[in-house]
Amino acid sequence: MLTTTNFMFKENSVKGVEQKLNEGGKKISRWYNDNFLKGNYDKYKITLIGSKKKKDENIEINVNIDGINIKSNSELKLLGVTLDDHLNYCEHISDICKKASKKVNVLVRFRNMVPEKAKLTLYKPVILANLTYCHTVWHFCKAPDARKLEKIQERAVRAIYNNKS
Prior knowledge:
By secondary structure, this protein is mainly alpha-helical. Helices cover 47% and strands 11% of the residues.
């Protein structure tokens, strides 16, 4: 069974967030110990989202759970959606494009061997599902990122219908 624990706090200062994270870490560590479980500290990450810091400025936050320092990261992956500390989805969209592009390449290779209906049947669950997973979250992405997604869809449609224009 896969379990995920997320702490999310809103505070006016980084020190306040740090204090709440340390308190929450102690509580979850106690719960793990009471239930004879062990936390996977390698997967613990901290991301300060929406802070008013500049892009090149690095705010240091120290969270310690069971004597282990938890690493601060500028990106966070929640339910398969990657977002950065400024709530940009550029990295997520790049990942989606890479995955979908590989699958479109397969369609392109088989465009003359497989019937149109079969290619369309493959496109919907395999490629389109990648492109639309949690799309309501990152729907208002930057225009260049939206264009990347559109180009992949156009390539897939050309491969399905054997249309080179």
